[in-house]
């Protein structure tokens, strides 16, 4: 059984920073591509960022490009999302997800496992 546990969410003022972490247990972490998604109130869940198994291929949604950085540490079974220059529109529940396939990283159904989510609130 694969488990993903996010942490690091909270309340921050606009322009501030937060760092999210997601620890994966149960299977070999390095065999998964990892993604971050978010869901704002009243909206559908959307892709934020993803990183392939080796960490060499990284992808971002246009809305966060240049402000967010995804990274992974395979020795710690952890994927990170550093969020800088936060805006009120970044307010959402953030989810990490794991995919065992080499597939389109921005698509939800390509992911096999999901965390429970962590709330990020940006006050303006």
User: What fraction, in percent, of the residue positions are helical?
Assistant: under 10%
Total beta-strand segments: 11
**How big is the Rg?**
13 Å
Low-pLDDT residue intervals, each spanning 5 or more residues: none
User: Beta fraction of the residues?
Assistant: over 45%
Shape field:
globular
> Biggest sheet, in brief?
7 strands, mixed
* Number of continuous helical runs: 0
Measured between the Cα atoms of the first and last residue, the distance is 40 Å
Mean pLDDT: 96
- In sequence order, what are the helices and strands, one letter per element? EEEEEEEEEEE
Q: Structural class, judged by helices and strands?
A: mainly beta
Q: What's the short version?
A:
The protein has strands spanning 3-7, 10-13, 18-25, 33-39, 46-51, 58-60, 68-73, 78-83, 92-99, 113-114, 118-123. It has 124 residues and is mainly β.
Could you explain how this protein is built, in words?
- There is one protein chain.
- The chain has 124 residues and is mostly beta strands.
- Helix content is 0%, strand content 49%.
- It contains no helices and eleven strands.
- The protein has strands spanning 3-7, 10-13, 18-25, 33-39, 46-51, 58-60, 68-73, 78-83, 92-99, 113-114, 118-123.
- The strands form two sheets. Strands 2, 4, 5, 6, 9, 10 and 11 form a seven-stranded mixed β-sheet that branches.
For this entry, give a set of tags:
mainly beta; 4-stranded antiparallel sheet
Outline the secondary-structure elements.
Elements: E1 3-7, E2 10-13, E3 18-25, E4 33-39, E5 46-51, E6 58-60, E7 68-73, E8 78-83, E9 92-99, E10 113-114, E11 118-123
Parallel strand pairs: 2-11
Antiparallel strand pairs: 1-3, 3-8, 4-5, 4-9, 5-6, 7-8, 9-10, 9-11
